[in-house]
Design a protein that fits this description.
The chain is of the alpha/beta class and about 230 residues long. The protein contains eight helices and eleven strands. It folds into two domains: about 120 residues, Response regulator (Rossmann fold, 3-Layer(aba) Sandwich); about 90 residues, Winged helix-like DNA-binding domain superfamily/Winged helix DNA-binding domain (Arc Repressor Mutant, subunit A). Helices cover about 40% and strands about 20% of the residues. The structure holds calcium ion (CA).
Amino acid sequence: MARILVVEDEPAIAELIAMNLRHDGHEVSLAASTDEAGAAVRQTLPDLVVLDWMLPGEPGVALARRWRADARTRDLPIVMLTARADERDLVQGLDAGADDYIGKPFSTAELLARIRALLRRKAPEALDTTLQVGPIRLDPATVRVFVDGAEVRVGPTEFRLLRFLMSYPERVHSRAQLLDRVWGDHVFIEERTVDVHIKRLREALGATGGAALIETVRGAGYRLVRPAPVRA
Ligand code: CA
């Protein structure tokens, strides 16, 4: 399940896309202009944006360019929609930072396939793939976590947090990044909240030794490490 923002001013097209994405299991929000979309992303960072080129006021490419220039939104996956078939537009769209490009009219099956491919590449934590890091296995489909084959109980927030950390093993995430990517909100939730849930997650994994894999990196944040191979 991914949080997807659809930026499209034509209500019929926006609704069609939203309906298909919801049917595919995603959580969808809508914006009808670059202003609305900018405001929505400042509040909640989505996993992916479907961005129409032709919008009232300002074109979608201008917004894509701004997002790419901002550290918080630099890696935001963007699929650009356009009725314009000109190759120069395509180049301009990709230069502005769109990850993929789809021309109108489009088949919804193709749009969904492109979105899934982009999520797999840039936001794997949003897909229902079973994850394994060292002794920890996480199954999004059944919402269960196992350490060395034994199930451990974790709360819903700890589950999302673990899923995110396991999607990017070894990578350090700041508290602000974790709030954005796990909670979807870096403005209205205190960074301390992350520490509380990391502590709960370690406690849940604790009895089994999985807790040691979640490292605090001083002055930087948290990461999940792959355990060192056992030497014979
Ligand atoms: Ca439009």
